[in-house]
Amino acid sequence: MNKHEMIYGKNMASIIELVEEGRKQQLNPLKIGIFVCPGFMPMDINGAQSVFTIASAEIYFIWKKKELVEGYIGWPTMPTMTFDECPEDLDVLVVGMVPPEIVEDTETLAFFANIGRKARYVIGTCYGSLVLGAAGLLKGKKATSNSNVVPMLPDVGATAVAGSDVVIDGNIYTSGPATGSFDASLLVLEQLLGTPFAQLTELAIEYDPRPPFGTGSPTLAGPEMTAIAQTLTAKLNQQFHQSARNGFKKTRLTENN
């Protein structure tokens, strides 16, 4: 196996040339850690992967083991780095929606409590904000998430902010689902490489959301449709809320010992 196969998966000359040409422009490529696990939500990390790939960053898909995991649903992903292998000088640590079991998983919380405090920037998208909160990273900070999660955030120490905009508090960027991953990543990229580069990246991926139905938030959808959506996820949200409380309690106990 040669160097390019190890890094890029396939020895495609055009892609290798594209990546290496981009990295020539940087003395030190950005180091981006993206958390994956069984049942992770691909749409909540795709924005980060897309934005930072254009920046020719080194992207690490991080999990406990280097074994195939399936994102929700049918999205096979091979982690490229374990918790123990993760460098402590990440430029960005990213987490999206993961199952409730992961929100209170002791090893996962220890990883985020450690690396999340050392990374230059941290992005939590959708239910990923609960992971950051359960790990103790949101204590005393403003944060947001999807509309179902916002009411849970005070239980993990955060000041909840409703709405669809990215919430920035220090080096932590939280957002709602899907497009929020693009929004937060572009804003972090601006801090890392400057406004002109972030603007060019937005153009390179032609990021210009145009939702066809205009129902992408509770405000736009109205109370009737919102009530239906909340009913469909009510049981899962109860599980998330309890897991977030459990995880936050575990973190506090660890910090006090």
UniProtKB/TrEMBL annotation:
Superkingdom, natural source: Bacteria
Pfam hit, one: DJ-1_PfpI
Protein's GO biological process: regulation of DNA-templated transcription
Domain DJ-1/PfpI: 31-190
Signal peptide stretch: none
UniProt-recorded name of the protein: DJ-1/PfpI domain-containing protein
